[in-house]
Specification:
alpha+beta, five-stranded mixed sheet, 10% strand, Heat Shock Protein 90, Single alpha-helices involved in coiled-coils or other helix-helix interfaces, 467 residues
Length: 467
């Protein structure tokens, strides 16, 4: 596979994976068609549908209360600002709206299964009541809660009416063959009257009309879950966007988590280096010192034995130097600093147990940190191909696409690689889960396509930063 072909594969990896997933789903649906039909028929009476219906029904009375209290409080606080009494009133309204948000998050979690994290707490820079009031008035999350109390009311009215009308019409028509007899038995009408124009009235009274009403009710009943899903999707978005953490707070949380990953990774690397030095070069140098000491003692009485010991020590020196070079290369290879990714990756590929094709197409060298992460990502993937993939060939493609640095490592091995597993190109060591954490620390992405028996394609994306 040439460099261009690799890029085409990499660019369409997500699409190809989605297509493969859709094809697999189609095969599963075809082989389990009755199961899919059963799910469709059970959906109108499923627990999820009834929970969503209950959520939509509860939204109207709750939102009416939220809207009334919020509008009244905000209007009162704004009107009293001229006397400065409006400041604590507005702060109290915002605090009340945060309480509404707590109720709505719990309701969405219990009925919709939407787990929305609580927003960042309000932190007062100064102590006392004045500091607390100032913190509430300056809290973006508190104002978003107030906005939710206002804008959710009209949506709740619409969703309540639509859900109740669709549900009642669907079940009324579906069950009409069971209760149509009520009209001729207790009224002067032959059936359910749909419309009347002067002296002409249309009733559902014939067997054909009753059967058609049943079919219409069945179709409408089967559509009810989809209507409820669409309505509650809007509620999920409102709760997540207005009652959850802000994007800035979420980003700060991600950065704190990524910083922890970087610190843990650095500590693990230091422990590895210390262990390699202690168990490798240090042990050899200690043995070398002892051997040279014995050779010094035997030099006068047994020159031949001393010469043999010096020769053995010379071999130990060479091994120690090789281990130190390998260790230094593992920390940061000199070839990467001097000549860039192309030469460094070619050097790594030459040590792989299978033939590796390397294609690096970059307009310039990226930032040193990004270059180092790219190098160690490819190095670990190739190392695991050697150990676990059982491949005959492998390929490495590196290129720039927009503001991203893309890396694709492929092999024709046994496949089946999964995050944290011991197979495929990403297996062994920290596995794909460890690589994912390292890439996430710099806003990178790792995508794995590894069908069993076909091979593995691992695509990594890193932000492009220049030196």
């Amino acid at each position: 596979m040439g460099g261009t072909g690799g890029r085409e594969m990499g660019g369409g990896d997500a699409t190809g994976g989605a297509a493969a997933g859709a094809a697999g789903a189609a095969v599963r649906t075809g082989s389990h068609g009755t199961g899919g039909l059963g799910r469709v028929l059970r959906a109108p009476v499923s627990g999820r549908t009834w929970r969503e219906f209950g959520y939509l029904l509860l939204s109207l009375p709750l939102s009416t209360g939220y809207f009334s209290l919020a509008i009244t409080g905000l209007a009162l606080g704004a009107g009293l600002l001229v006397t400065f009494l409006g400041v604590p009133v507005l702060a109290g309204v915002l605090l009340m709206c945060r309480g509404f948000g707590r109720i709505e998050r719990a309701r969405a979690r219990g009925l919709l299964g939407a787990s929305v994290a609580a927003p960042e707490p309000v932190r007062a820079r100064k102590g006392g009541v004045i500091g607390a009031v100032g913190a509430l008035l300056g809290s973006g999350s508190a104002w978003r809660h107030a906005l939710y109390a206002v804008v959710h009311f009209p949506w709740a009215v619409f969703a309540f009416c639509l859900a109740l009308v669709v549900w009642s019409c669907a079940w009324s028509l579906l069950l009409y063959p069971l209760w149509f007899w009520v009209f001729p038995a207790y009224t002067d009408q032959p059936g359910l009257q749909l419309f009347q124009n002067g002296d002409y009235a249309f009733h559902l009274d014939s067997p054909a009309e009753i059967a058609l009403s049943f079919l219409a009710g069945l179709l409408l009943t089967l559509a009810v879950p989809g209507v409820f899903r669409a309505l509650t999707t809007v509620d999920r978005l409102l709760v997540a966007r207005l009652l959850g953490p802000s994007r800035l707070a979420h980003r700060v949380s991600e950065l704190e988590s990524d910083r922890g990953v970087v610190v843990d990774t650095a500590a693990a690397d230091l422990r590895r280096i210390e262990r390699d030095l202690h168990d490798g070069a240090q042990a050899r140098l200690v043995a070398l010192a002892m051997g040279l000491g014995l050779a010094k003692e035997k030099l006068a009485e047994d020159p031949d034995a001393a010469a043999a010991m010096v020769d053995e020590a010379h071999g130990e020196v060479k091994l120690a130097l090789q281990e130190l070079r390998d260790l230094a290369r593992g920390i940061h290879p000199a070839v990467l600093t001097d000549r860039g990714l192309d030469a460094a990756l070619s050097s790594v590929a030459s040590r792989c147990t299978v033939p590796v094709r390397v294609c690096v197409d970059l307009p310039e060298r990226p930032a040193a940190a990004i270059e180092g992460i790219a190098y160690f990502t490819v190095s670990e993937l190739l190392q695991n191909i050697s150990k676990h993939a059982r491949a005959n060939t492998a390929g490495v493609d590196v290129w720039k696409s927009g503001s991203r640095l893309l890396i694709q490592v492929t092999d024709d091995g046994r496949g089946g690689a999964r995050p944290g597993t011991g197979t495929g190109a990403g297996a062994g060591g920290t596995g794909l889960a460890g690589l994912t954490e390292r890439l996430n620390a710099v806003d990178g992405v790792l995508v794995v396509d590894s069908p069993a028996g076909v091979g593995t394609t691992v695509t990594a994306e890193l932000p492009w930063r220049t030196r």
